[in-house]
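Deviations from the work plan: none for this task. Representative record:
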Amino acid sequence: MSRTAAPLNERDLAFALYEVLEAEDLARYPRFREHGRETFDAALATAAKLAQEKFAPHNRKADLNEPKLVDGRVEIIPEVKQALDAFAEAGFFAAHADFERGGMQLPWTVAQACYAWFQAANIGTFAYGFLTVAAANLLDVFASDDQKRRFLQPMLEGRFFGTMALSEPQAGSSLGDIRTLAEEDGAGGWLLKGSKMWISGGEHPLSETIVHLMLARIRGAAPGVKGLSLFIVPNHLLDEAGRPGARNGVTLAGLNHKMGYRGTTNTVLDIGGDRPCRAELLGEPGKGLAYMFHMMNEARTIVGMSAAMLAYAGYRQSLAYAAERRQGRPAGAKNPDAPPARLIEHADVRRMLLLQKSVAEGGLLLALYAARLVDVKNEDPDPAAREEAHLLLEILTPIVKAYLSERSLEANDAAIQIHGGYGYTRDFPVEQYWRDNRLNPIHEGTNGIQAMDLAGRKIAMADGAALDILSRRIAETAEAAAGDADLAADGAALSAALDRLRRTAARLIEIGRTDGPEAQLANASDFMEMAGHVVLAWISLKAALAANRALTAGATGDEADFYRGKLASRRYVFATDLPKIAALADRIEAGDRTALETQEAWF
Amino acid sequence: MSRTAAPLNERDLAFALYEVLEAEDLARYPRFREHGRETFDAALATAAKLAQEKFAPHNRKADLNEPKLVDGRVEIIPEVKQALDAFAEAGFFAAHADFERGGMQLPWTVAQACYAWFQAANIGTFAYGFLTVAAANLLDVFASDDQKRRFLQPMLEGRFFGTMALSEPQAGSSLGDIRTLAEEDGAGGWLLKGSKMWISGGEHPLSETIVHLMLARIRGAAPGVKGLSLFIVPNHLLDEAGRPGARNGVTLAGLNHKMGYRGTTNTVLDIGGDRPCRAELLGEPGKGLAYMFHMMNEARTIVGMSAAMLAYAGYRQSLAYAAERRQGRPAGAKNPDAPPARLIEHADVRRMLLLQKSVAEGGLLLALYAARLVDVKNEDPDPAAREEAHLLLEILTPIVKAYLSERSLEANDAAIQIHGGYGYTRDFPVEQYWRDNRLNPIHEGTNGIQAMDLAGRKIAMADGAALDILSRRIAETAEAAAGDADLAADGAALSAALDRLRRTAARLIEIGRTDGPEAQLANASDFMEMAGHVVLAWISLKAALAANRALTAGATGDEADFYRGKLASRRYVFATDLPKIAALADRIEAGDRTALETQEAWF
């Protein structure tokens, strides 16, 4: 039993890492040879402590006191900087960075497991860290040595923070319409002019300066995404010694006022309006979007993890509440003099807890599974293994982002419902989790975009190889379950669901061929839901197999209860979510044209 | 085409009232004989104007400036009182009250249609009106003539407001645990002592006084709900002339701070702590809950309507936005120099509009259908017709409340998603609709309670007569569709769905008999979802039949487009929602025991 409202269950994190994902095995890669369970656990323990002591306590305060503009400067409650300073001090900006840059050189999997603590504790404050780490990763791959020295290094130390500066007022989902213009300044640098919108962490007093990775179009470049280049744009110009000096021409034009994620500034930026905006080209011209997608893909799996961690925090909170709060009596109990039951004694409340548990714990495992693919893709000595991990990550990324963000909102909704009226008040944290989580289906590519990516591109990519690899992994789990008497029926159900998913995917591609891309994509969101249910069932069954192995090996007491919880989650997913795919598949395979054929004038 | 962001489409309201529900026919009842379409339309026009001019403009302001406590008094932005004064002035507190009490004596159906405007425009301000009307209705049925004169009359005039004072800190869903104690004061009156929680409109400066209808337990009465009596508790004692004088012992102990519905005060009240709390018994002792349920049932259908009207407002807003905002290009469009498409040109956006349209317009029609049953139940000269309306209303009430509140949240979620990042900001109204709407699954009996009411009581009530009547109405619509070439397939689908619903209901009752009430209710929420899908499909098909009749009769231009929209909504519901019932029915009929058997220690 784990009844505290700690936002994450460390037993579960250890289960995911060591009992399902064999994280220790990553130490066989040369890069991680100095690591092992001991160093992993030390990092996790530090993250757990820091998240609970420095991040969680001001989660509500930051929501109630959003960043505000005072005399042209952004003011943020002091706890945010204190938390991020401690995050830097503990080395988490450089959790997976090279030893030689002062990093911990942890596997990406373990770094993500550490970050899970911060996401569950305080997503708004952690976002500054996440944006900086994502920007640093991009610099690490594409920047010149000189740029790395001047920009990457201070970011790894937490002295400079980073952003992704893509969107513009007229170009949110549609990056091809970006208008910010770049021209050479005649001295080897560039001058940018335009306007940026929705830039998270775009202005704040938390770091020495902010390093924007900004998409712009070089004058005369092609229209659309092919004409975009990526620039490094610091908020302050650096002197010879790399110290931030005078302001660069990136001017705060306004703060956006959001429903949630309020601790994170979200900004409208004027580029080169008041004063010249100096920039450095990153890599080659015209490759901006390709570079950015390196960051974006990472960001998408992290969004999925963030969503699941908000679900996790809500689950833990509502579980603790349900175990304490007395209300009503079980159906059929007739004696009004008997003391009221605790909420958890009501079957409908347990249903809402199971929903949350399966999404939160399944989401954590799935997001860590994706993180592990990053390690394999980057470090495995076998090129075939690297390619396989790459393709699998490609097809899983939109699912991790979109499916987990949808389902995690549903989980947070259940957390509120368990609390009744109290859940609707700002005295309990669950309403904030729900509001914070509502961003996740929107940012880093809306879920509609993710669905089109999956149904229009990923299922067919590399001649279907990505889907084949995913199918093989799912089939392996289904086969393993066939050998486990308790889980054989679920193995068969998963196997049938996989067949159906493949059939539906093939049909979608056929529809695209015969009726064009609009027809292929008209029901993309349904296909996303279908694929997500299959993937969650697969992940739940993987966890259940590990749990049943441990039970068979003789786990007892709290340990046995923990493992039985994994079996219960899996049972819930197979009883509740997986059966939904039939109706979805029927409609997709029939090429339902309702949305396509409904004319504008009819609304 | 209706592209303005007026929160409600008056053409649609007229369609629901006159083309589907035959509201004019209500004038054949003696009570409404002075009415007809002309007076109905006049009332609707007044409501539309008032809602848009006096309620809508401060909807956001009231959200941003919630009621606050200043020197022990509640302060509310002045626009709220101005709006409610205008509401009173126009006679809407007495929309359906007797002529002799100064009322308009409108059918309940038409009164609800008027209220729909206010719900869509500003739910937080309207709530004061709704609570007062609901309380007045209860007094109208159960109060003595003297009580009616002193309390009901000023409520109908909008001088006194009302509340439902049921919940207590330890008794939210579980009214049987109410502890507020009543004792005779020796002078024919009563003294109350206790504490009340979640009382909406429990304190405010908007009316001369507040009339609480309060549940309490007379000393020595039975435990549980049988021992509850209902009392009239004014905030101020009335003098001989009925004028509010000294404060009664109902003291504001605190304001609850909610995520939404912020315009409506929600209070913790101390009863009889500081000073004596004088009360009058309403009706007979021990009948409190039965009386309250008169109000509660009405409140439940109004909650369903409120939810649907928030969905409606979000639909209209996101429709207007999608018709203007340009972003991206349709799938397959390759030329990046072409101007971006409007959002509504994307199939996935039309999908999200169809979802909203079917829930908002279907919800409006369903809630008005329920309101019409109230008129038949109260006014039809034929006792059999009255009884039939009563039973049908009994089984529809939990569905209207729970299903519409669930689905309307989903609709508001889609409204946000269509807006992208803008929808997540407080610069657009859709995020507020979503937050406001989140209350609806909680109050007036949580959706879990509604599901248990439906699956545990209503399907079996009067030997299954309520379900039989609902089935007959659904079958009539299915049969009518069989005669319409365009709709015959949907008629057959509805007919099959109805068969399945009845089979599942029978199985539930059987499970209750063999395995007990907990087993019967363990999957009640799934049964609610299933029943809701069937009912929405039925209502959508009813609307489609009316629309197709009009098209066949030669409607052209905008009118034809309007009707085609009804056909499109119906197509969406039959393609998307109705097919979900198979998986639900399978699980319910199998008596799935996942939630029942998951032990507390496993979480």
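Residues 528 and 601 of chain A are 28 Å apart (CA to CA).
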